[in-house]
Amino acid sequence: MGNVVELKVGLHCSECIKKIFKAIKKLEDIETYNADMELNKVTVTGNVTTEEVIRVLQKIGKTANTWEGDETCC
């Protein structure tokens, strides 16, 4: 089992998701990947780092941030 990378990415339409999946597929050692348009969340599982996934998404013009540090509190 590899790392699980969860990122916040702006997912506006199905074309955005297609571009993201195409870019992610180019990474080596990917086991699974998923996009949740409702949560604007991309999840990648495999032998990859958060930085690698962010870099690939930035190459296609997407801004990606980690979920950590995004605490919404009262």
Short overview:
It holds the Pfam family HMA. The chain is built from two helices and four strands, in the order E-H-E-E-H-E. By secondary structure, the chain is an alpha+beta fold.
Explain this structure to me?
This protein is an alpha+beta fold. It has one domain: Alpha-Beta Plaits. Helices cover 30% and strands 31% of the residues. It is built from two helices and four strands; from the N terminus they run βαββαβ. A four-stranded antiparallel beta sheet has the order 2-3-1-4, covered by helices on one side. The protein is globular, with a radius of gyration of 12 Å. The model has no long low-confidence stretch (mean pLDDT 88).
Helix content: 25-40%
| Annotation field: number of helices | 2
**Class by alpha and beta content:** alpha+beta
Q: How many structural domains in the coordinates?
A: 1
The CATH architecture term is 2-Layer Sandwich
CATH class: Alpha Beta
Shape: globular
- Mind telling me the C-alpha Rg? 12 Å
Major pleated sheet:
4 strands, antiparallel
Number of strands: 4
CATH topology: Alpha-Beta Plaits
Strand content: 25-35%
Given as residue ranges, the uncertain stretches (5+ residues, pLDDT < 50) are none
SSE run: EHEEHE
How confident overall, as mean pLDDT?
Answer: 88
Distance between the termini: 36 Å
What strand order characterises the main sheet?
2-3-1-4
Descriptive terms for the model:
Copper transport protein CCH; Alpha-Beta Plaits; metal ion binding; 31% strand; alpha+beta; globular; 74 residues; HMA_dom; single chain; metal-binding; HMA_dom_sf; 4-stranded antiparallel β-sheet
